Amino acid sequence: MITTTNLRENFENIQRLVLQGKAMEAFETYYGDDVVMQENELPATVGKVANRNRELDFFSKVTEFRAMEVKSVAYGNDLIISEWFVAYTHAEWGNVAHDQVSVQRWKDGKVIHERFYYAT
User: How far is residue 73 CA from its own chain's centroid?
Assistant: First the structure.
């Protein structure tokens, strides 16, 4: 089990990278090979390769990031729950601005499962 201190350090590193526009660097560093990621009720995407492709597709369609902020974070046993505010323009979806919650499960210093919750 990863300690809460290590979880906090890892999340702070992820947060720093994401806020610097380096989300894919955070993904490559902190996500496991078998990671499962899910947006709301959509089917989960399984594996690092499939999730990398999904993330790259998303970022290729973002034309402008207007805001990104971490509002709160909670740490548990191999678990991080974080609340974010994001505002961006997407080539297909237009202007997007919402709060979202990320629930991450960790194992051996890597995210093995992440699910995002937000209003659609």
Answer: 13
